[in-house]
Amino acid sequence: MALVLAGVVLPDPLGTETVLRRGAAVARAGASWMFTTAEFALTLPGRIEALLTRIETLMTRIDNVIDSADAVVAHVQRTTGAADIVVASASAASHTALELIELFDPIAKKSEPMARRFVDNLSDDEVDAAIAMVDQLPGLLDHMEALLPILATLDTVSPEIHELLGVTKDVRRAVIGIPGFKFFRNRGEDKLNDELEDEQR
After folding, report:
1. Alpha carbon 81 to its chain's center
2. Residue 37 backbone dihedrals phi, psi, to 5 degrees
3. CA 109 to CA 102: how far, in whole Å?
4. Residue 10 binned pLDDT confidence (cut-offs 50, 70, 90)
5. Given this model, what pLDDT does residue 19 score?
6. For residues 134 and 124, what is the distance between their CA atoms, to the nearest angstrom?
7. Contact 9/3 with Cβ under 8 angstroms?
8. Per-residue pLDDT at 17 exceeds 60
9. Cα–Cα distance, 73 to 80 (Å, whole number)
10. How far apart are CA 79 and CA 73, in angstroms?
11. Angstrom distance (rounded) from CA 103 to CA 97
């Protein structure tokens, strides 16, 4: 079919029907593109808002991670400070221990043979006796506490004791001066010896 343009008949090698089909296809493609573009333009604000929401959520998570990292760093700093204190204390204790070792090492070396000899010569019976003696220490302490007040008064009793001894010596001299006292004393000693021999039999 020929195409007439401004009164001039132009050849139509493709045919008018074909041109119309192609024009319709182009129009449909253009309309589809416009529809898709319009749809995209309409949904673009929602997508941008969703994207901003995700970005905000991501920023919140990043802030949380940063806060956690800060907390970890602070904890590490506290732990490091505590470790420094422990190291300083250990260093001071080590220095003190070295001083004590230097002080007591000569004493230990000198007393080691005596201590070894003491331990080597210590029998089981002696160990048991030492344990028994230690067990008696509380009772002994009670007796000593009761005895200490009496011992404190001995300095006031001392003159009276000296006077009593002097009187005793005078009485002894007087008794020895009695006539026949030596005879009676010897007789009494003989009698005591006989009784002692009878008891031993």
Report:
1. 17
2. -65, -40
3. 11
4. low
5. 57
6. 15
7. yes
8. no
9. 10
10. 10
11. 10
Q: Please, are residues 3 and 15 in contact by the beta-carbon 8 Å criterion?
A: no
Structure tokens given for 54 = 């995700």
Rounded to an integer, what distance in angstroms lies between the CA atom of residue 82 and that of residue 54? 41
CA distance from start to end of the chain:
175
For residue 78, pLDDT over 70 is answered with yes
Q: What is the DSSP letter of 11?
A: P
| CB contact set of 176 (below 8 Å; sequence gap of 6+) | 182
Q: What share of the chain is helix, strand, coil (3-state, %, to 5)?
A: 90, 5, 10
Query: What's the CA gap between 125 and 193, in Å, rounded?
Result: 39
Task: Tell me which DSSP letter residue 123 carries.
Answer: -
Residues in contact with 17: Cβ distance below 8 Å, sequence separation at least 6, in sequence order: 1
- Measure the CA–CA gap between 167 and 160, rounded to whole angstroms: 11
| Angle separating helix axes 154-176 and 124-152, nearest 10 degrees | 90
| pLDDT for 3 beyond 60 | no
Supply the pLDDT for residue 1.
Answer: 47
Torsion of CA 19, 23, 28, 32, to 10 degrees: 130
Which letter does DSSP use for residue 191 in this model?
Answer: H
